[in-house]
């Protein structure tokens, strides 16, 4: 490989990067301001005038950020006291030195400025004393989960049946189960609030039926080599780098359960975001709330699954990990250099599942790759352990396609790279410590 392709940027006015920064991000910021403002009476009752003032300051900070974005102002240093501030501000200096002028919203790398926006939203919260733990996306995430109850119940009833059959030593096709639950987790990624600009985007159809109806929409399907590898290496540690809360998280937890129940894995390590991120990304608080909500349900399946998953956390067959690296501006090829502790931790795994679009963008550096570039090449040396990405396409970056495949799918669907209706299961078994 010679020179790398350019990072995706809003400089290209035909790109999803331009559409995101021009249209989608301002809507997300407006929605944050509206959501926070609606809390004013509750906050005043709980925390008095000081709390109400902090709430007003958050709204003001978000509104200021929206204006900076829409007028393509330079990216500003962060000013709160969170531990990652130095890293962010040093990266801003690096970028300024690299390009010769201060980065700005429409001229700089899309991945950087979009990540920066969410970190700036958090800055407005971090500057508070009383409201420092506020999650400005909590209401949307919890609503999306509750509005997906029908689909969640179908999936949990089915999962309960499979778990009981396995416990009773029923003869089941483990490969078929693995493929089915992996595809359920894949298509769970369609439910992404950052793509719908924070508006309703819940799962309403039957997730099991969806596996069959959407099979032809998987552009790269590495389930066979993935199964061959996993069966040969089992049972080992499997890591899932999570994406969205709500229905998608439940699909990921069900996949984790099946991997353990079929002895394809000995333990599961879940990786969550350290702060509210890209509207619907999973934090530890979201993870805990999801399990608690299942435990409060009158549903037999939800209660059965809750008790089982609570037990998995207790016996450490499930482990939850939080790391700042997932909410920094870097792609994953930089991890070994910038964050060797996380790279070393991931290298303990026998398989890494990277969920969703943002993780895919960070895997391949969010660059303007030719779609036929081999997936392993686009990882640019990031091989802590064998890895698989489960991704519904929502950004105009993709590697690993066959010659002519992009043209063929574009003729069927002009929006194929960005509408979440097409997906990839890309597996790379290379390991380079």
From TrEMBL:
Keywords: Hydrolase, Manganese, Metal-binding, Methyltransferase, Nickel, Transferase. The keyword Manganese applies. It catalyses: L-glutamyl-[protein] + S-adenosyl-L-methionine = [protein]-L-glutamate 5-O-methyl ester + S-adenosyl-L-homocysteine; beta-D-fructose 1-phosphate + H2O = D-fructose + phosphate; beta-D-fructose 6-phosphate = dihydroxyacetone + D-glyceraldehyde 3-phosphate. GO terms for biological process: DNA damage response; intracellular phosphate ion homeostasis; methylation. Its cofactor is Mn(2+); Ni(2+). GO terms for cellular component: nucleus. It holds the Pfam family ARMT1-like_dom. Belongs to the damage-control phosphatase family. Sugar phosphate phosphatase III subfamily. Metal-dependent phosphatase that shows phosphatase activity against several substrates, including fructose-1-phosphate and fructose-6-phosphate. Its preference for fructose-1-phosphate, a strong glycating agent that causes DNA damage rather than a canonical yeast metabolite, suggests a damage-control function in hexose phosphate metabolism. Has also been shown to have O-methyltransferase activity that methylates glutamate residues of target proteins to form gamma-glutamyl methyl ester residues. Possibly methylates PCNA, suggesting it is involved in the DNA damage response. This is Sugar phosphate phosphatase.
């Amino acid at each position: 490989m010679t020179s790398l392709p350019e990072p995706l940027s809003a400089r290209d006015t035909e790109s999803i990067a331009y559409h995101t920064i021009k249209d989608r991000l301002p809507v997300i910021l407006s929605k944050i301001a509206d959501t926070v403002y609606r809390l004013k009476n509750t906050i005043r009752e709980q925390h008095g005038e000081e709390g109400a003032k902090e709430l007003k300051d958050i709204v003001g900070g978000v509104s200021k950020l929206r204006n900076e974005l829409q007028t393509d102002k330079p990216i500003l240093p962060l000013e709160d006291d969170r531990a990652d501030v130095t890293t962010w501000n040093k990266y801003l200096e690096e970028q300024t030195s690299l390009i010769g002028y201060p980065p700005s919203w429409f001229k700089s790398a899309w991945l950087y400025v979009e990540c920066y926006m969410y970190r700036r939203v958090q800055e407005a919260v971090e500057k508070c004393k009383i409201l420092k733990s506020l999650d400005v996306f909590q209401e949307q995430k919890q609503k999306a989960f509750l509005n997906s109850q029908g689909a969640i119940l179908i999936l949990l009833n089915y999962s309960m049946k499979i778990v009981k059959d396995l416990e009773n030593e029923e003869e089941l096709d483990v490969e078929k189960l693995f493929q089915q639950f992996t595809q359920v987790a894949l298509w769970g990624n369609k439910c992404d609030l950052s793509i719908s600009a924070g508006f309703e985007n819940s799962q309403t159809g039957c997730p099991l039926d969806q596996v069959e109806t959407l099979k032809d929409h998987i552009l790269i399907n590495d389930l066979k080599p993935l199964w061959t590898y996993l069966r040969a290496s089992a049972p080992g540690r499997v890591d899932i780098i999570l994406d969205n809360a709500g229905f998608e998280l439940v699909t990921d937890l069900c996949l984790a359960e099946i991997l353990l129940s079929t002895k394809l894995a000995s333990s599961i390590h879940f990786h969550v975001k350290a702060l509210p991120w890209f509207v619907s990304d999973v934090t530890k608080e979201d993870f805990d709330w999801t399990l608690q909500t299942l435990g409060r349900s009158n549903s037999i399946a939800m209660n059965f699954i809750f008790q089982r998953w609570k037990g998995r956390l207790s016996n450490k067959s499930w482990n939850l990990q939080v790391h700042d690296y997932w909410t920094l501006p870097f792609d994953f090829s930089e991890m070994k250099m910038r964050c060797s502790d996380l790279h070393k931790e991931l290298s303990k795994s026998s398989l890494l599942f990277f969920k969703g679009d943002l993780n895919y963008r960070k895997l391949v550096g969010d660059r303007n790759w030719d779609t036929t570039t081999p997936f392993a090449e686009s990882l640019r040396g990031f091989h802590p352990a064998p890895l698989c990405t489960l991704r519904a396409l929502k950004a105009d970056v993709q590697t690993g396609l066959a010659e002519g495949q992009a043209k063929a799918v574009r003729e069927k669907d002009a929006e194929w790279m960005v509408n979440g209706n097409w997906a990839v299961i890309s597996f790379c078994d290379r390991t380079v410590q």
